[in-house]
Amino acid sequence: MSLPVSDADLSLCDREPIHLLGGIQPRGVLVAFEQGRDTIAVVSANAATLLGAGSEALLGQPLSRVLSPDALARVEAGAALGPVTVEAGGQPCSALLHESDGLRVLELEPLSREDADAEEGALVAVHRLVSPLARANGAAALLQEAADAMRALIGFDRVMVYRFHSDWHGEVVAESVRDGVERFMGLHFPASDIPAQARALYTRNLVRLIADVDAKVVGLVPATRPDTGRPLDLSGAALRSVSEIHLEYLRNMGVGASFSVSLLKDGQLWGLMACHHLTPRSVSAAKRQASEVLARLLSLQLSAEERGKEAAAQARRASLLNMLVMPGLGERNPARLLEGHAPLLMELTGARGVALVLGASSGLGNTPLLLGATPPEADVRALVAWLSEQDLQDDLWFTDRLGGTHPAMAARTDVAAGLLAVRLDPAVPHFALWFRPEVARTVAWAGNPHKSMHPEPGHSRLHPRVSFQVWREDVRGASLPWTAQDLEAARALKGALVGVVLRHAEELAGLSRELARSNAELDAFGGTVAHDLKEPLRGILQYSSFLQEDFGPSLGEVGRGQLESLAWLAKRTYELLDNLFEYSRLGQLELSWEETDHQALVDDVLRTLGSRLQEGRVDVRLPRRLPTVACDAVRIRQVWANLITNAAKYQAGEHRWVEVGFLAPGEARPEAAAHVAAPYIFYVKDPGIGIAPQFHEAIFELFRRLHPAQAYGGGTGAGLAISRRLVTLHGGA
Q1: CATH number of the domain that 76 lies in?
Q2: Start and end of every Phytochrome chromophore attachment site domain (predicted)?
Q3: How many domains does the chain have?
């Protein structure tokens, strides 16, 4: 869906420096002090209300005027965990500490008796709220349970779960409201309501409270720092004041207080829990922290739900591809095979029609193979000719509004409002095209999104819209959007067609290029799998550690041994995946060549390995200074480290040594290196256990070890495979 707001509106909103507004909300006091010296450099103008001294009187004073050293130490110790309760100005306060612009920023919020009692109650509430989340069946039920739980925790009039779409406009997908309060469930909000820099802050600071939209902003003293020439950066401050545009937006909605908690998925902003109260209302630091815990649990469960669906969809696509490929291994007419599997080809991406332009060797000549609901042959040919002229990133192109991009297809929305195209060979116009028809639908917006901003007469400042009445927009000419899973399926089919169809291609060189790209995709896939599987292994390691600490004495010797074995296996698997990820990345590596002093490179490696070599009583010999040779210094340093580590590890004698050297051009070479044409030959020599001749090639296979996993200090068996591949990338042997 296109953004229903002008570029000018978005540009002005996105440029507003909301992290440099130079003020805070009056519900607390801010003090910034210099690191090391603990001298107050910036203080909020309302300091006297809590600290008994004005801001001017506090500037340049030691922080001990505000907080005792013991209290500061407790705040520092708990900074990463959340608010700490301290005494300041003779009353209990919630304290937060972070760093900004080279200063340490201390935020103090006075605690009422109710707030002070709320800490234990908030944590108990989170425990009570976890059970409904765990019982929820499906994402919709999960989000509704979370909205109800949040409203029960903070007592606001309205709690919405607000999900961002791909164009950053938002939709209310769950809502819990007090009786008599206006509902926004199912309504959409334009992207300009939460501009880019606000989304960046929501990603950085997960919790945001505006206790009173009409409260007067408290300035900072000094307003502009003498050393930087600008206000203190308040990006990380919980008390940070709010853009007047946003405050006016909330007033227009009839909101007196706002509280939001970010929902992240894989580190990216997925949505918000947006909470509104019709009158001013605060949320204690303890409840804010409990809300953050609740949101993190929700994010984890949402990710698990989505990953489960993605895994099921991937399994289904893999099954479809297998059904397409396996019967075709001996098929001499790929076109006949593909025509017989038309339903599978369409189900693969959820399309209604498929067009395949495969070339003469497919048995079709240059005639497109049209399956399902597609445009006429002439239109498909014209579309392929147009696509052939485009710069297709990763040989892929897709849109859910084909008529808007390629006007010649504007009249074909009945079959081709959406197009997903994959180019099978960059040298010839071979394509697979999937088509989707128009899906006419009505989107309900909270107010007219095309009038989201209006300028103040005589000024450039924008004012937010004043109406949030339901405004319905008919969306025409668009198909259902293509998902990341659809794109992945198209790429996978491309690889399958390489095996089934392009095996018969006219030009062998074209096939070789396609296979090379398929290998690159396989490398990327291996890296992705290794990366994704490491997350659950981290959890296994962490919970194994928890079990050992909490229940070790009660498990008995056998139980402890089994738990230690579990932890060792998880750690080893983690290391294997780490090495698999590293190995897969090498297929996409671009070397950075430069003249490199190998003596300095090896000296650096030896300094890094110094303690290990000393512990193993290994002497290192360098018969002469190593030369300067062009290479990628970072990658060859990795090779030196792997070879020296292996040489030091696999030795059984008492007198252990490793020799690092080279053979220069013109010098006699051993028989094993006689065939190498390179001007320099580097070597690492040791009196170790050796490798039997029959294993000279096998030892370079990934994860290949000739000894038990825990022998000779353990290891994964990836070091030599990685080293050989790096040397090969340099043109060596």
Answers
A1: 3.30.450.20
A2: 138-301
A3: 2
Residues 325-384: tens digit of each pLDDT: 655 444 455 566 677 778 888 888 889 999 988 765 454 556 788 989 999 999 999 999
**Residues, the chain:** 733
106: tokens are: 């201390």
Q: Among 22-26, 89-93, 692-696, where is mean pLDDT lowest?
A: 692-696
Looking only at the bridges linking them, the beta strands covering 656-663 and 681-685 are antiparallel
Range of the structural domain that residue 599 is part of: 589-730
By CB atoms closer than 10 A (0-12, 13-18, 19+), residue 611 is exposed
Task: Check: CB of residue 719 under 8 Å from CB of residue 646.
Answer: yes
Q: What is the DSSP letter of 231?
A: P
Contacts of 688 by beta carbon, 8 Å cutoff, 6+ apart? 647, 650, 651, 652
696 belongs to a structural domain? yes
Dump pLDDT digits (tens) for 125-158. 666 666 666 666 778 888 898 899 899 889 999 9
The answer to whether position 245 is within a domain reads no
Picking from 47, 80, 111, the residue at the C-terminal end of a domain is 111
460 part of a folded domain: no
Helix or strand (DSSP H, E) at 20? none
**Domain boundary, last residue among 53, 78, 111:** 111
| pTM (2 d.p.) | 0.55
Strand partners, 275: 159, 259
Specify if 88 maps to a domain: yes
